[in-house]
Hints:
Elements: E1 14-18, H1 26-36, H2 40-43, H3 45-48, E2 52-56, H4 65-79
Amino acid sequence: MSAETLPELDADFLFVTYRTDTLETPADAIGHLEAVMPNFCKFLHACRTNQMIVMPREQASASSYYGLGVLSYTVISHISGRRFESKAE
């Protein structure tokens, strides 16, 4: 997707990934977003409300049922029971 579509894809929560196999860090993931859309946090509700979760890419994909379970647990652990601001349309 192109950077111009990011505001259209905005959501209550946003999961951003980075590649540990290339020694990237969470700061690199943020840097990549800044590179394609400067000041992206102004445009994304999840970022403005501290509802953007940055995680290693290998934890955000599932290649087995076990992996899918781990991914589900990861998502639930970040949002379950948490007070959050909904993006009202």
